[in-house]
């Protein structure tokens, strides 16, 4: 668990590192101070590349939350650099005394918070205007420079053995909060080939692993996306995927998907090249560091083993018939026009559905969703980064970015999901969780997915319209099948790494065949004659390699949370909120046991989850039969 940069390896919404400019690399090699580099050498957002000046009610107020101007952000880099230099000088003394350790850790926390503020500001600028390449490069260069000056903190913690740390705690009790940070540093170094290795060697090299994500984004940007004639007019098959997928005319939906597939396939050789080089680079780095494979390295960092992950994938894969049955039921039922609601109605719905989570949660959620507070950015715009993410400005607030909001159920779910992340971060802020514990594996996604289930369940329970009730219940089941979706993607990524490393996948055609084989176990629509190009559309394979296993566990846990909530909400909710406020202050398994009594290794979790899905499928079948 890197004190400064854990969020970059655990957050699905973050960019991968990009290569450093040659001039900056040379300066680092000469050992210049971080303060000097940050003030003058980093790419700076250009005025000509700024996002359009026109504002919408749901647009992030960067000047209010972060910095009054781009120039102010650039100027503040010097302060951050000076702090990082001070931290780098203090690292050698941290293991020597309780006072030195306390000073060093609290300085590391301040550096991490300041870095996070810069990083998110630059990411938001680049997301709201993908032509602002300078901001995207500045973000990654900034992280690389600061990490180069401070990545020895983890080694300093690993140098303190447990008895010594306990002596330090007795002398200075305030250090107790960092007990798991020390244990995590020992865990990280113990699982490498040599515990004395420089942490910089253990970190991914942006020159070998950082360019693939940028290439992927550039391939998207250079693609000419076709349009289809929708029921209400022409639709861009990429930028208006929601409208295409919800068009009441099935021929429009089929034509849109085929056009989208064809547009991706036009550059499939380059997508395949980027993915193969991602796998090869990460495999080589993992083996250099003593691991059998890149997945094994990531699983170890998440306190998992390759065998345990494969076993969970297999248990969920065995339930694939349930997902297929649901898909066939939906196909037989057909689909009418999808309901659409305004953004104001959507935020009101989310607030009502999440009222059971308590007064504090409800109050903070209302602040987040109020457009007057400038914490939501929902578009529109011609050059916006696809998808969405939550963000946080440590010590200040949190917020949400979405590429757009068209009012479809999928848009409401995405907004619910990202507000779930933002609320998790906000509760950690209010509980004063140190930055070292602000991010971690496996437990970041379940709160967002759990909120999606709560909203869908609320609509299904409260509506009196039978058709809307059936639609909401179908949406709930779709979200409750998250373990299947997570297993499918984790299975695909694991098999990609296995096959590329073994040399049996060397081309786009090979990726197609592998994807068809994997998908056939989970999807009734994965026909042998289908294109198999889904791998090109799984952006996390390129943007955040080996993160997909998080969705395997988060899908399982989100449904488990709902099962426990449904059984005994009065008992579940206090423990659940305590889990959110705790941050990532222990291993995922320990936190789940402590706050919710959940055993992550218990195979009955899969049984309970799919029993709920079976129950909801029976309810849906009954509703659909009545509607007919």
Query: What general outline do the C-alpha atoms trace?
Result: globular
CATH domain fold name of the largest domain: Neurolysin, domain 3
CATH level-4 homologous superfamily of the largest domain:
Oligoendopeptidase f, C-terminal domain
The CATH class designation of the largest domain is Mainly Alpha
Query: Helices and strands: which structural class?
Result: mainly alpha
Q: Which range does the strand content fall in?
A: under 5%
Rounded average pLDDT: 87
**Which strand order do you get reading across the main beta sheet?**
3-5-4
Give the arrangement of secondary structure elements.
Blueprint: H1 7-10, H2 22-29, H3 34-40, H4 62-65, H5 70-90, H6 98-128, H7 133-150, H8 153-158, H9 162-171, H10 179-190, H11 199-202, H12 206-209, H13 211-222, E1 227-230, E2 233-236, H14 241-245, H15 250-265, H16 268-288, H17 294-301, H18 306-317, H19 320-333, H20 343-353, H21 359-369, E3 376-377, E4 388-393, E5 397-402, H22 409-430, H23 446-462, H24 466-480, H25 482-502, H26 508-519, H27 534-537, H28 540-543, H29 549-567, H30 569-582, H31 588-596, H32 604-627
Parallel strand pairs: 3-5
Antiparallel strand pairs: 1-2, 4-5
Helix pairs in contact: 3-5, 5-6, 6-7, 13-16, 16-17, 16-25, 18-25, 19-32, 20-23, 21-22, 22-23, 22-30, 23-24, 23-29, 24-32, 25-26, 25-29, 29-30, 29-32, 30-31
